[in-house]
Amino acid sequence: METIILEADPSRVIEGLRDTGYDFKTAMADLVDNSIAANATTIKVRIQEDFEGKFSVFIIDNGDGMDLNGLKNAMRYGSAERSDKSSLGKFGMGLKTASTAFCRCLSVVSKNSPTISKYSKVQWDLDAISKSNLWQLFILEPSEDEIELLDDVTNGGPGTLVVWEKVDRLMKGYTSKPHKKNAYDKLIKDLKFHFSLVFQRFLDPTIESKYKIDLFINDDKIFPWDPFCIHESKTDKVAIEEMDVEGLSSGTSSKFYLTAHVLPRKEEFSSKESYDNARVNNDMQGFFVYRENRLIYQGSIGVFTKDPHFSLLRINFSFNHELDEAFNVDIKKSKISLNEVIYTYLKDSFLPPLRRHAETKYRKGQISILAANTNHHDASNTNINSKAANLQGSKITVTNPNLNTVEISNSHGIFVGTIKVLNLERQGQCRVIPVESIESGLLWEPTIVEGNHAVSINQSHDYYSKIYAANLQNPVLIQGLDALLWALAEAEMSTYSEETKEQYEEMRIQVSRIIKNLVKDLPEPALTNID
């Protein structure tokens, strides 16, 4: 058998590796990972933009540092494997691929001894590689500015400085300084939150973790962001699970851990500031997946569709490096994949009761707000009440209010039936009655209130929360919706018979189910108490 050594084309490979799918936040987090893996306790990120076309990025840490040989290894694509398998640096690719995804010139300055004054510097310049078509790593002398940046964090001790120059894939397409400034401010703001989320467990001194760091962006200290709101007294910890995962190459079994939290409703938070900081929204629901205490993914993991009703549910999913193979952790450490057994367990067993709990809590908040707005049906009650006597096609007599038993007399005869009977003892609310829920999830049902023919409307139904609640300040539309449902209830009683009563009940069930699905994808209104 004949073999040959077929070397990769340097220019093609290094240009191709620019497109590994990094976004800016993920790339920056990858570089911070390297600093943490080097035992840094202080990490400073500086992002400089002169708004004239020059953009530079610096990552400085007081970690172990490297001599020249260490730098050569660090700059190698596929650097030597770290001895610590739990290291946040995993594939030996992140420093290079994360950096050159956005810049064409990557330099690293470092030293690894407090007693040696020698600083080493190496550099990949993609333009030089493109010209020579060689894996040409420059060994350079650090500039005074670079040494000053490094010493500002290390006080002359060990540490590392990463420099991005020729940044060609950020802040593109902006023709005016104001627009560019706005984009830059958003870039910094988003990165700050990303760091506070991804590195929360390393930033928070109250959380037990192998690493503890102080992290800065442009001298602003980054503080941890807790997605689970554990310090809020109304946060529910509703499930704690640990699961074994077998079948790894080592033949051993390792565990991952699940802890589910249902956040407080808006009015249950300790303060408005706490609620705003919690970012309770559709995007932040679901799983927060941590590898070695570092967040690598946030979302649904493909096991559910995001829905506003479940926006209070957040699940801590934690594992260590022993499960990298089982979960197929990618090169960017930004996602995982689940085997069929775990996927099925999460989807069919673990999640359903949690989502029900979250939905119930969410709807209670909705209903409490909607209940405060029941006066918006007053105009409907007045209108219907003024015309009901001429529109009613049946006479209903309550025979046993405790059992909701009534006698119905209409053009088809006299029948004994069951209709919801209420005694509200209030004026002006005797025709349209918003209620917290109706059996079988019905949107509406005929009701007798103090002898009046009325209709109960289910506030827990999506049609009420998405159509009614979105239009509480549109009295004409509310009256129209109320009139339609009252008319359906009255028509049912006017044509009620032994032959039709089951069909009417089935019709309400079917209509309620169909309309729930029709409005399912409509946005949730922003509910506030309306005077």
What can you tell me about this protein's structure?
This protein has 531 residues and is of the alpha+beta class. The chain folds into three domains: 10-221, Heat Shock Protein 90 (2-Layer Sandwich); 236-369, 2-Layer Sandwich (Ribosomal Protein S5, domain 2); 373-519, no CATH class. Helix content is 34%, strand content 24%. It contains 15 helices and 20 strands. It has helices spanning 10-16, 24-37, 68-75, 94-100, 126-132, 144-154, 177-198, 200-203, 272-278, 324-327, 340-371, 378-391, 462-468, 475-494, 501-519, and strands spanning 42-49, 55-61, 103-111, 120-125, 138-140, 159-167, 214-217, 220-221, 236-245, 254-262, 286-291, 294-299, 313-319, 394-400, 405-410, 413-418, 420-422, 432-435, 444-449, 452-458. The strands form four sheets. An eight-stranded mixed sheet has the order 5-4-3-6-2-1-7-8, with helices on both faces. A five-stranded mixed sheet has the order 9-10-13-11-12. Strand 14 (394-400) and strand 15 form a beta hairpin. It is elongated. The termini are far apart. The model has no long low-confidence stretch (mean pLDDT 88).
